[in-house]
From TrEMBL:
SUPFAM superfamilies the record matches: ACT-like, Tryptophan synthase beta subunit-like PLP-dependent enzymes
Pathway: Amino-acid biosynthesis; L-isoleucine biosynthesis; 2-oxobutanoate from L-threonine: step 1/1
Protein name from the UniProt record: L-serine dehydratase
Lineage of the organism: Bacteria, Pseudomonadati, Pseudomonadota, Alphaproteobacteria, Rhodospirillales
Family, as annotated: Belongs to the serine/threonine dehydratase family.
Keyword Lyase: yes
Reported cofactor(s): pyridoxal 5'-phosphate
Catalytic activity, reaction form: L-serine = pyruvate + NH4(+)
Domain ACT: start-end pairs: 350-426
Species whose genome carries this gene: Dongia soli
Length: 431
């Protein structure tokens, strides 16, 4: 059992990164102890081979560590349980408080309920409904406060001081880091011949724990972190750049403005590079995991794959491991991502077609489109545009198609038949 100086919540009311000066840096022994502590109470998640994705991305081999298969849908179960089981009986009786955008909240709430520990969870006001409802289902007191995780953290520390609760930090705590590191031990047992690992970074707890375990046992494996380009907190911190965070990201689980002090020190020492990915790469990654692997991941969970998409030159021909760290994506967001992915791939397209506004013309258009093998999803008439003659109309036709070339063929055939046509969605060579 590691020895960690206790933190007085009354003295820790500043930002999420406030640290005890004598903060313990967990090592391999701590991670192995954590593995014993949580054994049988978290899921030993699979590390599956993904040959089809590997072929698409030109890597020699690809393994996916499926932490989205944990009971609460993310790796956070590991660190939360390890931290809660480190509490003294007196601390457990007083109760705990945590701040989180969702996954850490669920991990703490679920295991606190199992262990009979009173829990309070502070979540940012913009947290997806799915994560709020799932957290509440485990019985904690849930408080929505603040625009982001840092504001929620400040409020949570104030409540901790007022009510004498134990503050459970989502990443900058040695017990949390050691708990997350148990995933690294499993990866080495399941896929130990990797050349590199790509791990999402929010505050840095997951990558710090895994890097500590992996580099101690197989130092030749390279560790890469990945962040949303909108929240490059760890990337900027380790590269000496000024903070530059903000915006709406699909990867809200790693949208952290302030990396941990403990985790930053580990990342600086053990991580080869921190890569930044944009929203398009994150969307494509979520879509590819569903389409190719039938795996549902949230934006943060798909960030490792997004890095493979964005930086192919770094990983071509190598044996790569990705940590799919969470699967708690809002169903509405997932539906939008999947539809946008179909549009991006040219499998759904919307055409604007000018027709004579008279009986039988729409049927002729539909017959022509049907003859190409496309499926009409919906049709909207646009009769009130002022730039159209009174006896003509525009129709917007949404189609299910095979690929961009198929769409271009449909457009060409409509034009040949005398129907002025243009595409309203992207990826066409037609004007």
């Amino acid at each position: 059992m590691m020895t960690v100086p206790s933190t007085d919540p009354a003295s820790a009311t500043s930002a999420a990164t406030s640290q005890t000066p004598a903060q313990h840096v967990p090592d391999l022994a701590d991670i192995r102890e954590a593995a014993k502590t949580i054994a049988g109470e978290v899921v030993l998640t699979p590390c599956v081979q993904a040959p089809r994705l590997a072929a698409q991305l030109s890597v020699a081999d690809l393994y996916l560590k499926l932490e989205n298969q944990q009971f609460t849908g993310s790796f956070k179960d590991r660190g939360a349980l390890n931290k809660l089981k480190s509490l003294t009986p007196e601390e457990a009786k007083r109760g705990v408080i945590a701040m989180s955008a969702g996954n850490h909240a669920q991990g703490v709430a679920y295991h606190a309920q199992r262990l009979g520990i009173p829990a309070t969870i502070v979540m940012p006001e913009g947290t997806p409904f799915t994560k709020i409802e799932r957290t509440a289902s485990f019985g904690p007191r849930v408080i929505l406060q603040g625009e982001g995780i840092d504001a929620a953290a400040t409020y949570a520390r104030e409540v901790a001081a007022q009510e004498n609760l134990v503050f459970v930090h989502p990443y900058d705590d040695p017990y949390i880091v050691a708990g997350q590191g148990t995933a690294g031990l499993e990866i080495l047992e399941q896929a130990g011949d990797l050349d590199c690992l790509i791990i999402p970074i929010g505050g840095g707890g997951l990558i710090s724990g895994i890097a500590t375990a992996v580099k101690a046992l197989k130092p030749e494996i390279e560790i890469y972190g990945v962040e949303s380009a909108l929240y490059p907190s760890m990337h900027h911190a380790v590269n000496g750049l000024a903070p530059a965070n903000g915006g709406q990201t699909i990867a809200e689980g790693i949208a952290v403005k302030s990396p941990g002090a403990l985790t930053r020190s580990i990342v600086e020492r053990l991580v080869k590079d921190v890569l930044l990915v944009d929203e398009i790469a994150l969307e494509r990654a979520v879509h590819m995991l569903v389409e190719t692997q039938r795996i549902v991941a949230e934006g943060a969970g798909a960030a490792g794959l997004a890095a493979l998409i964005a930086y192919p030159e770094l990983f071509q021909g190598r044996k790569v491991g990705l940590v799919i760290c969470g699967g708690n994506i809002d169903a509405r967001v997932l539906a939008q991502v999947m539809m946008r992915g179909l549009v991006r791939e040219g499998r759904i397209a919307t055409l604007r077609i000018e027709i004579a506004d008279q009986p039988g013309v729409l049927a002729s258009v539909a017959k022509l489109i049907g003859s190409t093998g496309a499926n009409i999803i919906e049709v909207h008439h646009q009769r009130m545009f002022f730039d159209l003659p009174v006896k003509r109309a525009d129709i917007d036709v949404s189609l299910e198609t095979r690929n961009p070339a198929h769409v271009d063929d449909i457009i060409a055939r409509l034009k040949e038949a005398g129907f002025l046509t243009r595409r309203l969605s992207s990826h066409s060579t037609e004007g």
